[in-house]
Amino acid sequence: MADFVGAVDQGTTSTRFMIFDHGGNEVGRHQLEHQQILPRAGWVEHNPLEIWERTQTVVRTALNTHSLAASDLVALGVTNQRETTVVWNRRTGRPYYNAIVWQDTRTDRIAAALDRDGRGEIIRRKAGLPPATYFSGGKIQWILENVEGVRAAAERGEAIFGNTDTWLLWHLTGGTDGGVHLTDPTNASRTMLMNLETLDWDDELLSFFDIPRAMLPRIVASSDPHAYGTTASGGPFAGTVRITGDLGDQQAATVGQVCFAPGEAKNTYGTGNFMLLNTGTEIVRSESGLLTTVCYQFAGEQPVYALEGSIAVTGSAVQWLRDQLKIIRTAAQSEDLARQVDDNGGVYFVPAFSGLFAPYWRADARGAIVGLSRYNTDAHLARAALEAICYQSRDVAEAMAQDSGVAVECLKVDGGVTVNELCMQLQADILGVPVSRPVVAETTALGAAYAAGLAVGFWKDTDELRDNWNESRRWHPSWSAQQRAAGYAGWQKAVGRTLDWVDVE
After folding, report:
1. Is 315 annotated as a binding residue?
2. Is residue 87 within a helix (H) or strand (E), and if so which, with residue range?
3. How far apart are the two ends of the chain, measured CA to CA in Å?
4. How far apart are CA 217 and CA 220, in angstroms?
5. Mean pLDDT to the nearest integer, 367-386
6. Residue 419: is its pLDDT beyond 80?
7. Would the pLDDT of 1 be above 70?
8. pLDDT band at 234, cuts 50/70/90?
9. Which pLDDT does position 426 carry in this prediction?
10. Residue 324 is labelled as binding a ligand
11. Residue 505: is its pLDDT beyond 70?
12. By CB distance 3.0 to 4.6 Å, which of 74, 193, 225, 392 could disulfide with 455?
């Protein structure tokens, strides 16, 4: 009998394959980064073919390293960077253009036009999203309008769209030889094209972007024993594995953190930060700058919804210190450098490289470092970068409390940045509540595995998944209320300095 569940986790900076046992413990993994393509200011792209190549490599390497085969896996789940947009030819498998990444801001004029003429309010009501560069709809429109031949190919039914989950599912199941063209409601709800109530593509929303319906994948449940089919025998698994789970990365992390009850929340620290609050089967409309999104849908059940606060740049701000400023050699060194000082020395760093996401939604904002004096050092900047991660999360937590009426009492955290213990202490200090990290910090892949395993009965129900959850570490606030208030006031003042920097028509 197969003893494990596999999960492909296709993220913004890397792709990994992880293997879990019935206890939710990591059995093996392999991970590879892919290139960040920056053609001009505000543009961020990935090579879809490189992502597929990396996916094949991490799967083969993880299985070989641990002497496992496809037959050892009872099911496979997929999770992915959401909103990142791929358009390719279904006959040749070749992308028409690089993947346009969720951080990319080239569609700012498209988003602004939607808000000017009233279509934005319809998008908010039907899709639960504000018109923004973040989401897939504008990116598809840009490709249709700017890449030669794509519009005609789409009208012929040859050019098809997917976020990176759909791109990988298509390849994993055979590609040009019968690959499935599917997605799930969590990914579809990030496009500005899906109606939250019907869980289907909406013709009125499609008309706003002039997108042919035939380009879009079919939407099926996030956890389903039959819809996704099996891996192609000639692919990286060298055999057939049932694909039974598909979730956008932040929804997958919510499942991995076993936030199955309304009112339960988690915060994932990765390239960006993403806080999700389970609102149950009720669609809660945000009045405070949050997104209404699908949290997950299990086969045969009603969808579960969430409020989400999406922050564009958190961990990638540390990456910027490493790759652009070169004041650290590794991301881990940011903690050592920041510990050299007791506070930020009056320095605030607002990393609005892609504008500001939740709760501000200001495409006109750009990054700023404020409060500098000759006293300040690289250590103050490193600490300010870590504090920026935490202050942006507080902005979202404040908005979430306003919308839901429920204040966070303990924040469940996961993702790569949570290994930075100074950052997690700062998060507890800035929020004023305990911060709890689970034993398995990479809950995105775990959530995809859980969705896949539930579909085939590897885990019988969500209660069994709750039993797997264990705390690794908890941080308690150490700042006084006065210190917390003063720090947040400085942050809000710094955010104000970033606004109206770019003229958006």
Report:
1. yes
2. strand 86-89
3. 60
4. 9
5. 96
6. yes
7. no
8. confident
9. 97
10. no
11. no
12. 225
CA dihedral 421, 426, 427, 431 (to 10 degrees): 150
Q: What are the residues whose beta carbons fall under 8 Å from the beta carbon of 330, sequence distance 6 or more?
A: 322
Which class for 109: exposed (0-12), middle (13-18), buried (19 or more C-beta within 10 A)?
A: middle
- Cis amide prior to 95 (ω within 30 degrees): no
Helix/strand number for the chain, H first, E second = 16, 22
Tell whether 141 is in a known binding site. Answer: no
Mean pLDDT across the stretch 203-225?
96
Q: Percentage of the chain surpassing pLDDT 70?
A: 99
The pTM of this model reads 0.86
Contact (CB, 8 A) for 295 and 278: yes
In the sheet with 73-80, reading across from the earlier edge strand, the strands are: 26-33, 14-20, 4-10, 73-80, 243-248
Give strand pairing partners of 45.
37, 100
Compute how many other C-beta atoms are within 10 angstroms of the C-beta atom of residue 486: 12
For residue 261, report the phi and psi dihedrals to the nearest 5 degrees.
-105, 145
Q: Check pLDDT > 70 for residue 504.
A: no
Would you say 14 is a known binding-site residue?
A: yes
Instruction: Answer yes or no: is 345 a known binding residue.
Output: no
